[in-house]
Amino acid sequence: MREIAVIGIGAGDPEQVTMQAVSALQRVDVFFVLDKGEVKQELVDLRSEILRRYAEDYRVVVGQDPERDRTTTAYVEAVDDWRRRRADVIAALIASELGEDQVGGFLVWGDPSLYDSTLAILDDILARGELAFEVEVIPGISSVSTLAARHRVGLNQVGRPIQITTGRRLAAGWPEGVDDVVVMLDAQTAFTEHLDQDADIYWGAYLGTPDEILISGPLREVAAEIEKVRAEARDRKGWIMDTYLLRRKRWEA
Ligand SMILES: C[S@@+](CC[C@H](N)C(=O)[O-])C[C@H]1O[C@@H](n2cnc3c(N)ncnc32)[C@H](O)[C@@H]1O
């Protein structure tokens, strides 16, 4: 039976690749990569560096990532449709490129459990019933763990819940019932919508890479600085990946 290893590779530092991930990398015969046609050459280089350092005797097969419809307001439907089309591409690659007794691999940024569609896509493919394979997941060090470590903070206050959410959702309002909110996928600096809150922010960009930037402090005091630094860094490099923790100091039940 074919086997697929979904391997978390950490947030950007090859040293974050775990021993378990190294063992899995060494077993993989064929790595599958979707070409997103992006300018993030550094991310492509980082993946290549991880393979060069840790993998052995492998092939890399590249498929074309289908376009996502970013014009529609029907966000969930657009993402569902995109995922289905990605599943078509990946299913075709597995069928044509992976031998019946071989191991295929997907390198996943951070940890596969957080805002990543690889596992859902593989489930979709299995549900179609046309291909059979076993899936093994190797956890990775997420950008969220890296953010907390770099700022030397825990994510929760004593006995309190935390919520991990997206910039899009944070822009729509502070989540109910939580004081600690971790925000990912924020293209719109949604923290600036919450300057009325008595909160601290712990912000990090390019975590784990040589370009890492960290800023923390009272949200009202550092929000403008983060916006400025973020815009400058994005212009300079052509892309940005950032994550932050918002911590409201007063519990409002
Ligand atoms: C599609 S999600 C993937 C998350 C990934 N699975 C993880 O565990 O970190 C991409 C988002 O993760 C965050 N992210 C990933 N890598 C990062 C890094 N090196 N520095 C800061 N944020 C990062 C950003 O919020 C980015 O928008």
TrEMBL record:
Gene3D superfamilies: Cobalt-precorrin-4 Transmethylase, Domain 1 (3.40.1010.10), Methyltransferase, Cobalt-precorrin-4 Transmethylase, Domain 2 (3.30.950.10). The keyword Hydrolase does not apply. Pathway: Cofactor biosynthesis; adenosylcobalamin biosynthesis. GO terms for molecular function: precorrin-6A synthase (deacetylating) activity. Residues 4-222 form the Tetrapyrrole methylase domain. Keywords: Cobalamin biosynthesis, Methyltransferase, S-adenosyl-L-methionine, Transferase. InterPro entries: 4pyrrol_Mease, 4pyrrol_Methylase_sf, 4pyrrole_Mease_sub1, 4pyrrole_Mease_sub2, CobF. It comes from the Bacteria. GO terms for biological process: cobalamin biosynthetic process; methylation. Transmembrane segments: none annotated. The keyword Transferase applies. PANTHER family: COBALT-PRECORRIN-2 C(20)-METHYLTRANSFERASE, PRECORRIN-6A SYNTHASE [DEACETYLATING]. This is Precorrin-6A synthase (Deacetylating). It comes from Kribbella kalugense.
